């Protein structure tokens, strides 16, 4: 089983719908991140969390919200999806004691907003 | 504004050829990472370079961090089809805050 699991892997929805992407990890890491990936733009940070009580906005947080339900779970919500939120979304984790700063990614959630 | 410029954006070569991918910035980074991403999967870390001028080797892959810690390169010797993927570089601005700045990636295809 993957250490970082994302659900759903693929989702097609309509403009205005609420969508939740979920992420769970078994690595025991306290730091969790949500990124979106668009062709030619690389990875852009949406939100990150250093522990259950610490949530921070990334560079493109508008239109998104997150919830850190437990150390192992970090979900991303789109309250009212719009077509330009069509993208590949990745959850990632990192241990606070890791001096190399390695990120461990899930397999991604592909979201299409029609 | 892309703070980390990767070049080329796309490269398709024959098996056995050598290639170099570049990651350039006007900013100084405390460390720089290279990841490889295969279709349907998330990026996986290949290497982290920390010291200016540092060279690290991973089998046929050679990574170099620029002396001024503003740029990096990835050289692949005798490329194989298994090297196919999207190569991403990411720089950390400080040791205490690992907020990474990502390049847009180089899509590499190695033809048999």
Give a written overview of the molecule.
Chain A is mainly beta and about 110 residues long. Chain A is about 0% helix and about 55% strand. Chain A is globular, with a radius of gyration of 13 Å. Chain B has about 110 residues and is mainly beta. The model of chain B has no long low-confidence stretch (mean pLDDT about 95). The interface of A and B includes residues 41, 42, 92, 99 and 103 of A.
Q: What order do the helices and strands come in, and which of them pair?
A:
The complex is a heterodimer of chains A (114) and B (112).
Chain A: E1 4-7, E2 10-13, E3 19-25, E4 31-38, E5 42-51, E6 54-57, E7 65-70, E8 73-78, E9 87-94, E10 104-105, E11 109-113
Parallel strand pairs in A: 2-11
Antiparallel strand pairs in A: 1-3, 3-8, 4-5, 4-9, 5-6, 7-8, 9-10, 9-11
Chain B: E1 5-7, E2 10-14, E3 19-24, E4 31-37, E5 44-49, E6 55-58, E7 61-65, E8 71-76, E9 85-92, E10 100-102, E11 106-111
Give a nutshell description of this structure.
Chain A is mainly beta. Chain A has strands spanning 4-7, 10-13, 19-25, 31-38, 42-51, 54-57, 65-70, 73-78, 87-94, 104-105, 109-113. Chain A is 0% helix and 56% strand.
Throw out a few tags for this protein:
heterodimer; A: 114 residues; mainly beta; seven-stranded mixed beta sheet; four-stranded antiparallel beta sheet; 0% helix; globular; B: 112 residues; six-stranded mixed beta sheet; 53% strand
């Amino acid at each position: 089983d993957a250490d970082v699991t994302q659900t759903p892997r693929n989702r097609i929805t309509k403009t205005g719908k609420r969508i939740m992407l979920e992420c769970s990890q078994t690595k025991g890491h306290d730091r969790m991140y949500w990124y979106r990936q668009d062709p030619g733009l690389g990875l852009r940070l949406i939100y990150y969390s250093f522990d259950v009580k610490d949530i921070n906005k990334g560079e493109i947080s508008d239109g998104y919200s997150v919830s850190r339900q437990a150390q192992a779970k970090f979900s991303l919500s789109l309250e009212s999806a719009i077509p330009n939120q069509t993208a590949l979304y990745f959850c990632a984790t990192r241990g606070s004691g890791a001096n190399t700063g390695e990120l461990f990614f899930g397999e991604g959630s592909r979201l299409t907003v029609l | 504004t892309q703070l980390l410029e990767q070049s080329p954006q796309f490269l398709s070569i024959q098996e056995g050829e050598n290639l170099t991918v570049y990651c350039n910035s006007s900013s100084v980074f405390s460390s720089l990472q290279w990841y490889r991403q295969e279709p349907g999967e998330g990026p996986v870390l290949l290497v982290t370079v920390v010291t200016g001028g540092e060279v690290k080797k991973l089998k046929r892959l050679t990574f170099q961090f620029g002396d001024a810690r503003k740029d990096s390169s990835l050289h692949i010797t005798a490329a194989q089809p298994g090297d196919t993927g999207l190569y991403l570089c990411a720089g950390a601005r400080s040791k205490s805050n690992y907020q990474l700045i990502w390049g847009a990636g180089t899509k590499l295809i190695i033809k048999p």
